[in-house]
From TrEMBL:
Keywords: ATP-binding, Kinase, Nucleotide-binding, Transferase. InterPro entries: P-loop_NTPase (IPR027417), Therm_gnt_kin (IPR006001). GO terms for molecular function: ATP binding; gluconokinase activity. Belongs to the gluconokinase GntK/GntV family. It comes from the Bacteria. Pfam families: AAA_33 (PF13671). This is Gluconokinase. One of its GO terms (biological process) is carbohydrate metabolic process. It is an enzyme of class 2 (transferase). It comes from Hyphomonas beringensis.
Amino acid sequence: MKELIVIMGVAGSGKTSIASALAGQTWWPFMEADEHHSAANKTKMAAGTPLTDEDRASWVDSMCKVSAAMPEPRIVLACSALTPFVQAGLREGSGRRCRFVMLDVPKAELARRIAARADHFMPVSLLDSQLEALTVPEDALRIAADRELEDIVADIQAALDAQA
């Protein structure tokens, strides 16, 4: 069965860096969920307005269509996947077994990371709404992501192998 490894968490958790590093070490293709957001969604978030599931529908559909069309057995996706709506959409529409990896980072560190970004559409003001919206799937792997990148990636690989 084809798999979609979803590196998930709120803004500032390190999804892109960690998913990209995992993909690079495993030679699995990498997908960035932010590339699938509409301009309207990015504008809405940049203005400090949280997205609704209605806003997220086309985003989820776009990610699913791309991943379903890819021939590779495994894909790594950097995606917030905060809500059951998104998680179910990925599970049902991607044509793949979804394996969620939740990146755990203390709130103060998340805020520091977001504030340090110069060119990202997600403001610190949305952190609380993201944490409130976050529903971690029961079957998600939970990984402490406030450590060295290499250690985080190694732990993810070991956990995925143990669950295979």
